[in-house]
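Human: We require from you a protein record containing the residue sequence and its fold in token form, and nothing else.

Assistant:
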Amino acid sequence: MDNQGDNFTGGFLTGALLGGLVGGIFGALLASRLPNTGEEFSLENNSTSGKLGRRRKRQLRAATELNIEEARQGLEAKIAQLNEAIDEVRQQLSNVNGSEQNRRE
């Protein structure tokens, strides 16, 4: 029983180390392929400070708010379409159920 316990511990530690190594390499490869959308930040030269940085932040905030508003309007339109479809199906089902009940009576 002790031999199996030793094998388990060694295998577990080896698997954890290899898994961490493979996961780290995989993550680094994926991260290098992502587009760099954020601004570079440097302690020596902070490019987001001053009027230019504030203007960029305002533009980003305005663009984000515009995107949120467009998404909200798009969702409202989709919800309206779904509500119409639900009403149509409900009406069709009530017509089918009503005609079946009339035939039975």
In short: Helices lie at 2-33, 50-104. The chain has a mean pLDDT of 79. The CA atoms of residues 18 and 24 lie 10 Å apart. The radius of gyration is 30 Å.
